[in-house]
């Protein structure tokens, strides 16, 4: 992980070790029955067998330190969209249709204005994703929390025979990139560190086209409806990847033992260049932390690439083939 990110306060190596420890502990659960879990190690969502045909896909995530930017600006009405997006975009990666989400709001003291604004965003995100939010939890944790934290958990359904885990990906398959709306909800510790001191109400040197705060609070794109349309089409979808922290390296979470050659990447928004300059971060470091303009990838057979793009471009005119799967060890190859 990048030196710049470590200096900003995120030790990814420690995080990986911590997750490994959690996984080891949870692996010792004794059920007294056969596990219903579908083996999808390292994937975006977990799937539990409901019966012999149907699985329940599960995911949980939060908004992270993007909330600190919202607090600086006193604007929380888009944060709920981020919370929905970070969850439903993972659930769709296994080919599941997200159905519902529960939210969890931890706050130092109940603030009606803040909570209502978060609710406005949650409602808008739910509409964009086509999911319900039938309940949630508000916890006042003044002794533990400063400000507010927002997270959620999502579930959907998928036919067990239709799970998309990437195992069908073959060398030569086309990788289609869908544009991000900006930083989404990852890398904000590095972004805030790099941009510290710049007025959020202004556009630094006229480089962004709008105030910095607006760019930083741009909601995470929700890819559910276009990807569901693709899944329900005649196109064989062989792999799906939500591009979050780790960038295009998230493709390596798919099951296929192939390399991913990225020869025509999507353009990165100006905010990424600004962060890189001020953080002194290399191109490699930036691609480890951020989505760099590509928020989601769909992998299809090369001969169906144009058919897939015809379905996706009405939603994302900037969608395009960004590379292909190739023979070799599981790795990302960029120019």
Could you characterize what this model shows?
This protein is α+β, with helices and mostly antiparallel strands and 335 residues long. It contains eleven helices and eleven strands. It has helices at 3-8, 12-26, 66-73, 79-91, 112-129, 188-195, 212-216, 224-231, 270-279, 283-289, 305-312; strands spanning 46-49, 54-62, 97-107, 132-140, 148-159, 174-179, 237-242, 259-262, 294-300, 320-326, 332-333. The strands form two sheets. It has a six-stranded mixed beta sheet, covered by helices on one side. A five-stranded mixed beta sheet has the order 1-2-5-3-4. The chain is globular and about 50 Å long. The protein starts with a helix and ends with a strand. The mean pLDDT is 94.
How are the strands ordered across the major sheet? 7-9-6-10-8-11
Q: CATH fold name of the largest domain, please?
A: Phosphoribosyl-aminoimidazole Synthetase, Chain A, domain 2
Secondary-structure content class: alpha+beta
Q: Report Rg.
A: 20 Å
Task: Please state the overall shape, judged from the principal axes of the Cα atoms.
Answer: globular
Q: How far is the first residue's CA from the last residue's CA?
A: 19 Å
Low-pLDDT sequence parts:
none
The portion of residues assigned to helices is 25-40%
CATH architecture descriptor name of the largest domain: Alpha-Beta Complex
